[in-house]
């Protein structure tokens, strides 16, 4: 079976840097290449998360490398919406081959005050046929201060053509994300972290309800590697879909749905 992992992180693991998320913001092209080199034996393709927009000030060797070593790849850029030169950087990133932009509510400390500029960036992305990823993880001491559902709903009312992918399916907010996906045809749910993390809890049943309720073509498999160990993510996810009545959709969820999404203009 072919595998496309929609959510792969490539932290630099630099000496003295303990915060993996921060290390992603300072990763160089060489760091990214070193981190992803072992994946080509496991995956047919993947969507790589890139947190350092400054990489596009140079020729992107990482994109060249992955295009040569995987059947199909896509790239998601975490957008620093507070950067005054962000639109110029986005133009360079798009020219280099970026397919998605991303916002992360509590990592980026997004409040309603930030919504106007974020929506402008999303509209710029939509105009340039770039898709939008919104981090739907729900946790940390910031989970109440930075409201992921409010951000996702606000953007979904403004962006109606470009696909919007809710990463992690909203975590414990998955039922709310499901209601949005039932209303908005351009909302997709991605499984990473949430699915393996909540196995054995009541949230597992909620996720099963959600994934059976929405159009199965809108479900994308992701691991969140290395924050979740890839084999653990794959095995638990595969077992979950067999257990909860989606065995006949496994090839779509693990590969075909992502490929169709990438081919959408």
The oligomeric status of these chains comes to single chain
CATH topology call:
TIM Barrel
Specify the helix fraction band.
40-55%
| Structural class label | alpha/beta
How many helices does DSSP assign?
A: 11
Most strands sheet: 8 strands, parallel
What proportion strand? 5-15%
Query: pLDDT average, as an integer?
Result: 93
Question: What would a concise description of this structure say?
Answer:
With 265 residues, this protein is α/β, with parallel strands linked by helices. Helices cover 42% and strands 14% of the residues.
Describe it.
The mean pLDDT is 93. With 265 residues, the chain is α/β, with parallel strands linked by helices. It starts with a strand and ends with a helix. Strands 1-2-3-4-5-6-7-8 form an eight-stranded parallel beta sheet, sandwiched between helices. The protein is built from eleven helices and eight strands. It has one domain (4-263): Alpha-Beta Barrel (TIM Barrel), CATH 3.20.20.140. The chain has helices spanning 20-25, 29-36, 61-69, 86-96, 115-127, 148-158, 174-183, 194-197, 202-213, 230-243, 250-263; strands at residues 4-9, 45-50, 72-78, 100-103, 131-135, 164-167, 187-190, 219-220.
Sequence-ordered SSE layout with sheet pairings:
Layout (H helix, E strand, L loop, with lengths): L3 E6 L10 H6 L3 H8 L8 E6 L10 H9 L2 E7 L7 H11 L3 E4 L11 H13 L3 E5 L12 H11 L5 E4 L6 H10 L3 E4 L3 H4 L4 H12 L5 E2 L9 H14 L6 H14 L2
Parallel strand pairs: 1-2, 2-3, 3-4, 4-5, 5-6, 6-7, 7-8
């Amino acid at each position: 079976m072919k595998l496309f992992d929609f959510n792969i992180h490539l932290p630099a693991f630099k000496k003295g840097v303990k915060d993996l998320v921060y290390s992603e913001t300072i990763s160089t092209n060489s760091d990214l290449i070193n981190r992803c080199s072992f994946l080509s034996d496991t995956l047919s393709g993947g969507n790589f998360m890139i947190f350092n927009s400054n990489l596009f000030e140079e020729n992107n060797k990482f994109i060249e490398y992955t295009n040569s070593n995987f059947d199909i790849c896509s790239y998601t850029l975490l957008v620093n919406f507070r950067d005054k030169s962000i639109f110029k950087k986005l133009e360079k990133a798009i020219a280099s081959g970026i397919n998605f932009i991303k916002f992360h509510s509590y990592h980026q400390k997004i409040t309603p005050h930030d919504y106007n500029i974020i929506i402008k960036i999303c509209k710029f992305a939509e105009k340039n046929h770039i898709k939008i990823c919104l981090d739907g993880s729900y946790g940390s001491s910031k989970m109440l201060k930075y409201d992921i559902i409010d951000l996702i709903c606000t953007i979904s009312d403004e962006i109606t053509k470009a696909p919007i992918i809710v990463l992690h399916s909203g975590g414990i907010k998955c039922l709310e994300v499901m209601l949005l996906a039932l209303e908005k045809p351009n909302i997709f749910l991605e499984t990473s972290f949430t699915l393996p993390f909540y196995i054995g809890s009541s949230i597992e049943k909620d996720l099963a309800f959600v994934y059976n309720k929405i159009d199965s073509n809108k479900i994308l498999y992701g691991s969140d590697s290395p924050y979740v160990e890839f084999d653990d993510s794959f095995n638990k996810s595969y077992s979950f879909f067999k257990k909860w009545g989606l065995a006949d959709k496994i090839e779509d969820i693990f590969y075909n749905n992502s490929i169709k999404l990438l081919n959408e203009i």
